Amino acid sequence: MTDMLSVAVHRGTGGVRFDRFEVPRRPAQTVLDVVTWIQREADPTLAYRFACRVGMCGSCAMTVNGRPRWTCRTRVETVAPDGRLTLEPLRNMPVVKDLVVDMAPFFAKWVQAKGVFTPRADLGADFAVVPPASPDRAAADAAVECIGCGVCYAACDVVAWEPDYLGPAALNRAWTLVNDVRDGGQDARLAAVAGDAGCRACHSHGSCTRHCPKALSPTASIAGLKRAVLRAALHGGA
């Protein structure tokens, strides 16, 4: 094992310029540690994004040696045994600068997918009781831990081919609400995810599931949406 890492870092916005840095190798070093060292010790103009450093916020996600990852939880020794790292911004989103992407289009698709809770008018003033063991609650629980980091979106081939595709995160969010018995926006939500840019555009490659840092399965959520859309269509809905 070498004492130095050779790190190629995407610069600017065009995707064609990379600067190379020699970074000291440390025990238990994360990729985020590497980026921080470069910004503090070698080039203070390097732009990147991070917050919690402990895998709670997802804001440090980047493309590491070709794969989207949370850099705060990615150990250098697991992804760069040869001492070489290539760091790029997340794919499928506009690049602001260097390693920072504009997340606005990503979250705009959550809105398009009707990923906002709409309370039913007949719930009354008291709290709604949802039994933990109910099938709907179990289906929602399996997908609800998404924190919106964008890794699945960056890994999705369909988004790369069809920029209008809502993407796995937005559809996963829609699925949690489809299974929320307190929600009253189901007709509009199923109509929103049933279009050409919705769940039927998914090719079930499974890249979103393979790359999800939270071990969720957007692929399964999207499959559930496909079934829900079909049932609605058979009953004269979406």
UniProtKB/TrEMBL annotation:
Q: Which organism is it from?
A: Elioraea tepida
Enzyme Commission numbers on file? 1.3.5.1
Main enzyme class: oxidoreductase
Query: What is the catalytic activity of this protein?
Result: a quinone + succinate = fumarate + a quinol
What InterPro entries is this protein classified in?
2Fe-2S_ferredoxin-type, 2Fe2S_fd_BS, 4Fe4S_Fe-S-bd, SDH/FRD_Iron-Sulfur, Succ_DH/fum_Rdtase_Fe-S, Succ_DH/fum_Rdtase_N
Q: How is the cofactor bound?
A: Binds 1 [4Fe-4S] cluster.
- Domain 2Fe-2S ferredoxin-type as annotated: residue spans: 3-93
Give the pathway.
Answer: Carbohydrate metabolism; tricarboxylic acid cycle; fumarate from succinate (bacterial route): step 1/1
User: By what name is this protein known?
Assistant: Succinate dehydrogenase iron-sulfur subunit
Q: Which Pfam families match?
A: Fer2_3, Fer4_17
Q: How does it assemble?
A: Part of an enzyme complex containing four subunits: a flavoprotein, an iron-sulfur, cytochrome b-556, and a hydrophobic anchor protein.
Say if the entry is tagged with keyword Metal-binding.
yes
State the needed cofactors, names only.
Answer: [4Fe-4S] cluster; [2Fe-2S] cluster; [3Fe-4S] cluster
Top-rank lineage group of the source organism: Bacteria
Molecular function (GO) terms for this protein are: 2 iron, 2 sulfur cluster binding; 3 iron, 4 sulfur cluster binding; 4 iron, 4 sulfur cluster binding; electron transfer activity; metal ion binding; succinate dehydrogenase (quinone) activity
Q: Name one GO biological process term.
A: tricarboxylic acid cycle
Q: Which residues form the signal peptide?
A: none
Q: Locate the 4Fe-4S ferredoxin-type domain: which residues?
A: 136-166
